Amino acid sequence: MSKKEIFRLMIGFRKFREKYFANEHPLYQRLTNGTAQTPKTLIIGCSDSRVDPAIITSASPGELFIVRNVANLVPPYETGGQFHGVSAAIEFAVVNLKVENIIILGHRQCGGIRALMINHLGHTEGFVNQWVSIAKDAKARVLAKYPDEKDEEALCRHGELESILTSIKNLHTFPFVEEAVKNNQLSLMGIYFDLELGQLMECDERSGEFKNIEV
Ligand SMILES: [Zn+2]
Predict the structure, then answer these.
(1) 194: CA distance to ligand 1 center in Å?
(2) Topology of domain 36-212, per CATH?
(3) Beta strand 187-194 pairing with 210-212
(4) Where exactly does CATH 3.40.1050.10 map onto the chain?
(5) pLDDT per residue over 145-177, tens digit each?
């Protein structure tokens, strides 16, 4: 363990504490004063260190309910005895917190999607390969759409966008998500963060096209 790095993180915590606990009516006093959390949005983002949803949206504590995993994927709805961490978070956000939005936040240069798209040796072992196979239909769509594309960066970028659509499709397989969407209590959005250009793109779920968000 790097003590220097841990020390740096603790200095960061001191700054955080000064910001959120030091004022007369600090935010955390309000957030913890006899009420549960009331975030309006669930973001499902990637574990990548460069794409923290709270940082890139300048969100305050209490605003976002967040799940992060490799390649920001949503598995299909499955019951059974396994340990469904992402599904548990989706259930809690929709059924208990009654969030109004779910955002799938994909991003450029995603290592998880690279593992899915550029797997020259056909590895299937390991947790990452197994996990990203959730989006194998996205890979198949990209390869069918761009059969002559040889550029790996381009293939990965297409895969990053298509896999967002897979996750949205899988969200619809959760009965409580589908019910909330049908009752207009919940919106699903796909957003792509281009961390090279500093831009966000939004997915049109019907057409599958992504367009720049002007902010
Ligand atoms: Zn990623």
Answers:
(1) 11
(2) Beta-carbonic Anhydrase; Chain A (3.40.1050)
(3) unpaired
(4) 36-212
(5) 999 999 999 999 999 999 999 999 999 999 999
Own/partner long-range contacts of 19-25 (Cβ < 8 Å, ≥24 apart) = 20/61
Residue in the block written with tokens 């396994």: 82
Q: What's the gap in Å between 198 CA and the centre of ligand 1?
A: 15
Given a contact cutoff of 8 angstroms between Cβ atoms, the answer to whether 72 and 158 are in contact is no
Calculate how far, in angstroms, residue 55's C-alpha sits from the geometric centre of ligand 1: 15
Cα of 97 vs centre of ligand 1, distance in Å, is: 26
Alpha-carbon distance of 95 to 128, in angstroms, equals: 29
pTM above 0.85, yes or no: yes
**CA 132 to centroid of ligand 1, rounded, Å:** 11
Digit-coded pLDDT (tens) for 43-99: 999 999 999 999 999 999 999 999 999 999 999 999 987 889 999 999 999 999 999
